[in-house]
Amino acid sequence: MGLRDRIHRRIRRVVDRFSGEYSAPAPEELKPYERPGVPAEDAEVVMARLNRPVPGNRKS
Q1: C-alpha–C-alpha distance, residues 5 and 11, integer Å
Q2: For site-directed labelling of 58, which of 18, 24, 31, 47 has its Cα 20 to 30 A away?
Q3: What does the alpha-carbon distance between residue 25 and residue 23 come to, in Å, rounded to a whole number?
Q4: 8 occurs within a structural domain
Q5: Residues of the chain falling short of pLDDT 70
Q6: φ/ψ bin of 38: left (φ > 0), alpha (ψ from -120 to 50), beta (otherwise)
Q7: In the chain, what are the helix, strand and coil shares in percent, each to the nearest 5?
Q8: Which residues of 4-41 are buried (b: 16+ CB within 10 A; e: fewer)?
Q9: Total domains present in the chain
Q10: Torsion, Cα of 19, 20, 21, 23 (10° steps)
Q11: Virtual CA dihedral for 31, 36, 37, 43, nearest 10 degrees?
Q12: Is 18 among the domain residues?
């Protein structure tokens, strides 16, 4: 039993754990995601500014 066989066996175990055989069945009806809270109608979107140094001014 080499390293390759051990890795292969371990990978196979992980795949079996996540396979559809052991997972729960899908629900009959879909529930839409609901965001908590109330949306702000007067919200303002502002673009962020990054103060990055100019590439030509690198210190060496």
Answers
A1: 10
A2: 47
A3: 7
A4: yes
A5: 20-22, 57-60
A6: beta
A7: 30, 0, 70
A8: eeeeeeeeeeeeeeeeeeeeeeeeeeeeeeeeeeeeee
A9: 1
A10: 100
A11: -90
A12: yes
Nearest-angstrom CA–CA distance, 15 and 9: 10
User: Residue 56: inside a domain, yes or no?
Assistant: no
Dihedral in degrees, nearest 10, Cα atoms 14, 17, 20, 23 = -150
- Tell which residue, 29, 7, 11, has the closest CA to residue 19: 11
**Nearby residues of 16 by Cβ (< 8 Å), 6 or more positions away:** 22
In this structure, is residue 30 part of a structural domain? yes
CA-to-CA distance for 45 and 42, rounded, in angstroms? 10
CA distances to 20, 21, 22, 56 from 12, rounded to whole Å, are: 14, 14, 14, 52
